[in-house]
Input
Amino acid sequence: MASMKLVLLQDVEDLGLAGDSVHVAPGYGRNYLIPRGLAAPASPAVLKQIEAQKEKIEAKRKAELEAAQALADKIAGMVIQIPMQASDDNHLFGSVTERMVAETYAANGVTVEHQRIRMDKHIRSLGEYTINIKLHQDIMASGKIVIVRA
Output
């Protein structure tokens, strides 16, 4: 199977960190990584450029890690309430999705992408639940949400 050798210009989740040399499928590299500025074809000039920016990249990673840890601490201290309509036996009319949870966090001053929220399945009844939010490659925050009757 053919592969393409690229140097990552930015951290790419589940692929590698900036400065890493990776082998990927040609279509993935040509159609996704290169046009978005996430990677460049491996060449001596690109490797030299990445080496010159190593300190800047490390400082950026450290700042992102600290920001993610601070956000994780903030999320751990919050309890979010989501009002939903429910039947007499506490079964919801609809379900609570990752997107609804992200919107509720945003309304409470915490910006979280809905793709980073990890729920086993959509919530379909009233009660208290614990959700996980992947804030960084190394940091998983745990948050509490309470589904209440609207």
